[in-house]
Each structure stands twice: as C-alpha cells, then as structure tokens.
From TrEMBL, chains A, B:
Family: Belongs to the CinA family.
Pfam families per record: CinA (PF02464), CinA_KH (PF18146), MoCF_biosynth (PF00994)
MoaB/Mog domain sequence ranges: 4-169
Taxon lineage: Bacteria, Pseudomonadati, Thermodesulfobacteriota, Thermodesulfobacteria, Thermodesulfobacteriales
Protein name as catalogued: CinA-like protein
Signal peptide (from-to): none
C-alpha cells in the first residue's frame, strides 16, 4: 500500500517554517505498514497543486494533503482538490454550523469570508466533529485522499486518531510491520556498523537504519512479514541479537530520553542525585529537571564556572586548583564528592573541562574533560577527550556523565568503559 | 529565477531522518533572489528520480539534487542523472585520485567499489577540491543542475561557499531581495499581527511572515525590488517602522540568540552575572554557557531544587520558606539578592515556580513563577503565570528572566512590562 504526501504553503517552500510534519507522518504511516513514495512541498499555487495531486492519485493508493484549508484567499486546497477530481465545491452545512458556533463562542463578529472554509469538494467527509477546522477525506474508487490542516498539532492529532484507522479500514496493509528505535551511547560507529551488517544479512525481512544523533546513535529496526506471528518472531530474534551484541550500550527505545531512564532507576531505588558542573554549564541539571517529577530525586545542581565558586560552594581545595588546574582529576573528585556530601545525596556527578573554542593548551587541548562520579562505594574520576565544537563537547560531556550514572544504577559498574576516554 | 530541490534517500522518505536541509536551502536561496517552487523527497529509486529530474529541468531554471552520491549500491544519483540527461557516465580522474588519497590517509585498504563514486555524468564539474565527496554541477543549455552530498554539514558548506556564487554567475537573479528575521519577545500575538498587516498594506514590495517560535516570535521581512537602491530604501523604511512600533520588544535579528545578545552587552559594560534557579533547573545557566566566552561574565549558577539547597547555598531564610512557600516574592528576592552577594557579581537573576505537571494549587496553579532581579539599584521580583506544559513554562520563565536583564542593560528599565505578568 503506497501513498504520497503533499504539503501546501508559501511559508514552507520559502523555508520560513521547516516542514517536519510530513516526515513525522511518513514515519507513523510506515510503522502501520504504509510506504510513502514521495513527500512534496509546494507553494499556494493552484495549478501546481492540481497537477501533482492528479499524478499522486494516479500512481498511488492514497494521498495526504496538508495546509491551505483556512479562510483566507491564499487557502486554495479545497478548490484545487475539486478541480483535480473534476467535482464541484459544495457547501458543507455541518462546517457552516461549526464556524458560526465558533464565532459566537469567541465573541467575534460574523465574517462571511470565513464560510469559504465550508465549501468542500463533493463527497468530502469531515474527519472529526471536535473542531472547526476538521479536515476531511474523499473516496475516489479504490483510492483515498485525506485533506488535513497544516497546523502541526492539528495535523498530528487527526493523523493519529482518524487517518490511520480509516486507512486500515479502507486499505488494509498487505504486510505486518514491526518498527522500533534502539538508542545507543558510548560505542564507535565502526563497532556498531559491522554487527548491523551481519544481522541484516542474516534476516532478509529486516531493514536496519543507522542514524548518528550525536552524541547518541539511533538504530531503527524495521521488520516486514506476512503475518503478526512471523513479524513478532523475527523482531524478537533481532532484539535478542542486538541486546546480546551491544547490551550495556543500549540505554533506551523509541522516545526514551537518557535523563528519563535515569529518573526511573533512581525512583525505583529511592535514591537521590546532585550535580556539580563547570564546562557543561547547567546542561546536565537542565536535562534532569526537564523530566516531570525530577524533584523526587534531584536535590541540587551547582554551576561553578569560576574557581572562586568551586572553592566557596563545593569546598574544592585552593591547593588542588593551584597545583593541578581546574581541569584535573583532584578537582573533578573534589567537586563530585563535595556536591554529594553537601547535598547529602546518594550520588554526585561532576564535570570540569575545556569546551572551547578558546582555553586549550598543548597539555589540555579543547575537548579535555574530567568527569567525576561519587557514590557510597567511593569517588572516581576519568579524563575524556571529546571531539567537535563547543556544543558537541558540552553534549558529549553531559551524556557521558548521565550514562555513567545509568551504568552504575543498572549494572553496578563503578568505572564503565567509554569511547573518547584518554589518559588525562 | 525558479528552481526545485530533489532530496534522495530511503532514510528521509521513511521519516527516520527529517529532511530539514532542503528547507534551509530554500531559505538561503530565497535570500539571494531565487524562488524554489517544489521541494521533493523520494526513495533510492532510479526510475522515480529520473522522472522527476526531467520534469524539474524542463519546468525550472535550476535544480538541486541531494544524496545518493556515496559508494554503496544504494547510491544511484549519478546513474539517474546520467539517464535523465541522456549522457554517459565517465570516470572522473580527479575523483579517483582523491578517493585513493583518502584511503591512504585513513590507512584503509583500497576498495574498488569506492570508485563508483568517481563515475559521473559527462560534463560534471566538481564543486570543490577540498573533499573526497565533492558534489558537482552540470550545465544543460541555459539551465544548471547541482548534485550535492546528503550529509547536512557537507551540503550546507557547499551551498554557502559554491552553489550560491555559481548561480549568481550563470543565472543572475532578476530581482533584488532583502531578507531579515526580526526576533521579538514579550508581546501578544494580536498586538504584533495587527501592525504587521498595516505595514504589509503600506508596502506592496514587502512580504511579512509571522512565526511563533515560542516563547519568541519571529517576523520575517522579505523585500523584492527592481534594484539595490530601491530594495535598501524600502527595507530601511520597514525596519524603522518595526522598530518604532515594537522597539524594546525586538531583541535581535537573524541568527541572534537572546543569551548571546546579553553576553555582548555584559562584555561591553565589563559586568558580571550569577543566577539562582529552581523550576528552570539549570536552563538559564545552560543557555548562557553555550555561548563561547561566557566565562568572562558568568560567575556561577545554582540550581537550588530543594528548600534545603535554597537555605544552604543562598541563605534564603527558613522563615520566608515556611511562611510564604518556595514560590513567593520573599524567596525570589532572597535568591536573586543572595546569589549576587555570594558571587560578588553586578547582576543576580532568580527563578522559583511551579513548572508542573504536578505541584499546583488553587492559589498557585501550575505555571506560577516568581522571577527576581538584583542589581546595584536594588532587588525586585515579579510574579508570572505562564501557559503550556512543563517545557513551555520552563522556556517562558528562562526567556523572561534573560530578557529582563537585556531590558535593564539596554534601556535601564528596572521592572519591564511583560505578557503573562500576574498579581502574584
């Protein structure tokens, strides 16, 4: 079952708004067994829309159009669809009622122009009775055309709640799909790629996608099979294989965030955390606290950017700063141990490094970062040399610190092995 | 001068990687006077690529193809381009040399498959001599076709450094374009929209785009004129009008970040900053420290998530916490004043609030946030009620605190007026 997506809008084609919604839709559709063959963005130009719509309906089983359903004169999707299908525009009384109701509810004067939104191609069936701008679908023989509002939230809501179900009714997929994202951290690209190739060669039903979303690596597993049982069976085999090969490096699946995984582990264990950051500048604390409920396990964070702050807030000894410098093992240890002791938490994490672009030296080049980890077993620190620009060094440092805690919580590893570890 | 963009790749059409690069390119091209009429994404399928390429080269002055230039059997762009143009594939000796050099430099064994990358359509001119995967262009009569690598960084680099200059040489734009993004914070949508409509009605050469990138609002100003002088003249008039109407609410232009604007102002004044955060959880410190050189003006941040931390690190009186609660004027004042005093900085910012989803009450619903500002003139605090979910409340709170500092640095306003201010 193949389809195309046509997104209409001057703001999209001008690059003023990036059309990410169509790509999100393609991913959702694929997970339900529908293959998208073309994703096209065009301006608010009737002739072009008509031309491409005709082609897509000719070539594919279904088509999704987004945008251009509003009341202004720029909004020409309804007219273009009617013209492409050779059907007249007909006033939809249900839409008229909703538009008038909405004007009354919002206490805005009736504007007859708004009724343009109610002139839909003959045969249009509204997708929902919840909203004024509902979107609609049209059956054209065996094929189906969906017209959805361009506003991302509305589009996503209707796709999830209505479009996927209608597709399944009208165009049941010929294959069963299983799709999952495996999220990795801490492995080299080459280490992963070689194994993935082996898995793909072993299972012809499986497509693996390798996506560096640095500092993480995401691997998408797509299984296509003739029936549910076969799909589940193959998916399980691939999953077991991935977990056997990569085990501790897989921190989560699909929408999992590393900071949310850590949060769940800390909650389960009724344990608490404090962090002391220098070069990551609050990034770790900020990631932890974007998770709802993090106040149950996150006690405090300090961003000790200056040496003075390291001494005053964390009790880092002046001597260590003088003798070894702020980016050093003794300072990382003192920060992790200090923040854990002062906050009376189960864990303390610390980061001190040179994010760049300036501040590097031959002995401590940009990217040099010491990370400290403190728990009841003791306090340890390791040196890393992270690649990339300031943002990338900060992102790698924060991710490594958070993953270190995950590895300890999950496997009890006091000093995990990581990519980019250096002698320090 | 009109063009189309064709992005090739299974990972794109499956929605595993969102194709934002094409939209970025459309924006860059528009700013140079080139209009994109279609942005199409297709899978690695030769026949479909050939068909659309032919159409685009027929309909438009130029076409940009991205992706599919690599060495694997999936990479079929070169073959498709050759077939679409009816030209043979020819071995490009320069490419062969670069591939072999790269193999030697990386010390990897020679793989003859990699030489597929050197088989280019007859007439292809390499875009750069810096890299192995160079991209190329082809002249077809008056028209021009660019083939670029799909890797976003490579694509962007080549577009900026080579493609725009070549287009200007071969297809000089017929109109002069001025394009600028104006970045607003702190105004209501309705306040902006009405004025924009007036401006657009007054200047037929101007298209204004209104884009809520919450909590900011971005307004794009696009001027098309027959010559440079006219374009600059109209752009100046619109700019003056916008600055007269909205003045203090415009914090920057184009790629400006609010935290970078503040950084420049603090540097100019040789002044320093410390922040004390509760519900924003390090977001403010993290935004400030992502700017290179921020250590010159940022002394420390503290994320006092627990009441204990507020007392211990900032000296917030136990009494204030007991009597008024952590989300209150006295606590916001004590945090801002405390962090400024302890860090001995010129400015102190504080945020304490209820980001949700839990923790709200009838008197202090989710979204209630107190922000404190401390400077040599004194310490003040104001209460806000921000809309949206946890992330949005955190984003609004951080943005408001940062903008408050900007308004003071730029205009000396001790207590600026903001949207979402409440009685508290």
């Amino acid at each position: 079952m193949q389809g195309a997506i046509l997104a209409v809008g001057n703001e999209l084609i001008r690059g003023q708004v990036f059309n990410t919604t169509s790509f999100w839709a393609a991913r959702e559709l694929l997970a339900c067994g529908y293959t998208i063959k073309e994703i096209l963005t065009v301006p608010d130009e009737k002739d072009l829309i008509i031309k491409r719509l005709k082609e897509f309906l000719e070539a594919y089983n279904f088509c999704l159009v987004s945008g251009g359903l509003g009341p202004t004169t720029d909004d020409i999707t309804n007219e273009a669809v009617a013209a492409a299908l050779g059907r007249p525009l007909v006033v939809n009384e249900e839409m008229v009622r909703r538009i008038k109701e909405r004007e009354q509810a919002l206490n805005i004067p009736h504007n007859p122009l708004r009724l343009r939104m109610a002139e839909l191609p003959e045969g249009a069936v509204l997708l929902t009775n919840e909203r004024a701008m509902a979107g609609y679908y049209l059956k054209i023989g065996e094929k189906i055309l969906f017209c959805l509002p361009g506003v991302p939230q509305e589009f996503r809501h209707l796709l999830k709640t209505r479009v996927l179900a209608l597709l399944e009714d009208f165009l049941p997929p010929s294959e069963v799909i299983r799709h999952r994202l495996f999220k990795f951290f801490g492995l080299r690209e080459a280490d992963i790629n070689l194994k993935l190739k082996e898995i793909e060669d072993a299972f012809p039903e499986v497509s693996l996608g390798y996506y560096p979303v640095l500092p993480e690596i995401h691997v998408s597993v797509l299984v296509k099979a003739a029936n549910e049982q076969k799909a589940d069976e193959i998916f399980s085999l691939v999953r077991e294989r991935l977990e056997r090969e990569f085990g501790v490096y897989i921190f989560g699946y699909d929408d999992d965030l590393l900071e949310a995984v850590i949060g769940r582990l800390l909650l389960e264990r009724h344990e608490t955390l404090a962090v002391a950051e220098s070069c990551t500048g609050g990034l770790i604390a900020s990631r932890i606290t974007r998770i709802p409920g993090s106040s149950a396990y996150f006690e405090r964070g300090v961003v000790t950017y200056s040496n003075q702050a390291k001494k005053e807030i964390l009790g880092v000894p002046e001597e260590a700063l003088q003798k070894y410098g702020a980016v050093s093992e003794p300072v990382a240890l003192a920060m992790a141990e200090g923040v854990r002791r002062l906050a009376r938490t189960d864990y303390g994490l610390s980061v001190t490094g040179i994010a760049g672009p300036t501040g590097g030296s031959p002995e401590k080049p940009v990217g040099t970062v010491w990370i400290g980890f403190s728990c009841k077993e003791g306090t340890v620190a390791r040196c890393f040399l992270f690649p990339g620009d300031r943002h990338m060094v900060q992102a790698y440092a924060a991710e490594t610190a958070l993953d270190w805690l995950r590895r300890y919580l999950r496997y009890g590893t006091l000093v995990p092995r990581y990519q980019f570890t250096c002698r320090g």
